[in-house]
Amino acid sequence: MELRQLTYFLTAAQTQNFRKAAELCLVAQPALSRQIAALEEELGIALFRRVKQRVVLTTAGQEFASYVKNALDTLQQGQFAMSRLQQGQSGTLLIGCNESLATAVLPEVFARFRVSYPDVRLKVSVNRTDEVIALVETGEVDVGLIFDPDVRSEIVVLRELFRQQLQVLVASSHPLARLEPHQVTLQRILQEPLILLDESARLRKVLDRILLQRGFSISPSVEISSVEALKELVRHGSGVTLISPALMRSAHHEGLTLLSIADLQEEFIYALVYRRFGTIPLLARQFIDIVVQTEAPVE
Predict the structure, then answer these.
(1) Cβ(3)–Cβ(11) under 8 Å?
(2) Cα–Cα distance between 18 and 5 in angstroms, integer?
(3) What is the CA radius of gyration of the chain?
(4) Distance of CA 68 to the CA centre of its chain
(5) Which of 119, 174, 185, 296 could form a disulfide with 162 if both were Cys (CB 3.0 to 4.6 A apart)?
């Protein structure tokens, strides 16, 4: 059973005339008649009967026609889907992202991406920076968004998106919020109970590195793995924390205040990462273009 036989059969069924069907299929009538006869022989049943100057479907032909129509419609849909895939209009894009960029960048990027590619499915894996890089290296995700990259891999390409300085997050009623900007120093901040992410978090590693370089040692009053829980603890006056403004992008700000740190000038990089080798999927290239065009988040 061949596709052309099914096409000839369905066209003949619709026109009820072998000659007209042959014209529509751009084939000689004897050739069309032979193909339909071969199809009937393969199925072992008559599909048409002749009535005067036309042909009509037998009962078996009517039933078979419904299956053929469904099959050809499905094939046509498949062809259209493959065309859309080739054009980057559909498919699944796999994204790795750390939590800060998931809240700071992805909502706006996704909104813009959906306008141009509404049928593309986005699947996001939220992990720590090192884990995102590993996922990109192994090809488990197409593109990654990371914070403070320390990339020594030859497999991936790093593309900087924006930079931010760490700031201190306090309850709006906290005494630090009433100080002059030049008075908000690391030494003053470290006099307060500190609420920090646990030692596995990239933000915590950055902070530990900064304080060690400056001769400070810290003993957090609270260590926690959840950024949202950390912010709630600060809101309720349990202590203060050092945080990237990007983490506040989608936060409910009532009762919280971010303050610049007078003696902390280091900038921390947020970046895009993708594989250096092999062809970057079209969907990933389209996503990268939109990410790069998106403005850096501000608090």
Answers:
(1) no
(2) 13
(3) 32
(4) 37
(5) 296
Burial label for 247, CB within 10 Å (0-12, 13-18, 19+), is buried
Task: Check: CB of residue 196 under 8 Å from CB of residue 231.
Answer: no
Q: What is the DSSP letter of 250?
A: T
Contact in structure between 145 and 230 (CB atoms under 8 Å): no
Predicted confidence band of residue 102 (pLDDT cuts 50, 70, 90):
confident
Per DSSP, 150 falls in state -
Max mean pLDDT range (103-117, 187-201, 278-292): 187-201
Q: Tokens in use for 59?
A: 């009962």
Give pLDDT tens digits for 14-55. 899 999 999 988 899 999 999 999 999 999 999 999 888 889
Calculate mean pLDDT across residues 91-97: 90
* Closest-CA residue to 37 (of 27, 24, 46): 46
C-alpha to C-alpha distance for 292 and 286, rounded to whole angstroms: 10
CA distances from 224 to 80, 204, 220, 228, 229 (A): 49, 11, 10, 10, 8
Q: Which of 103, 147, 102 is nearest to 124 (CA)?
A: 102
By the 10 Å C-beta count (0-12 exposed, 13-18 middle, 19+ buried), 26 is classed as exposed
How many Å apart are CA 225 and CA 175, to the nearest integer? Answer: 26
Kindly state the tokens that stand for 8.
């000839």
Q: CB 215: neighbour CB atoms within 10 A?
A: 6
Whether the per-residue pLDDT at 296 is higher than 70: the answer is no
Nearest by Cα to 171 from 238, 219, 226, 221: 238
pTM for this prediction: 0.60
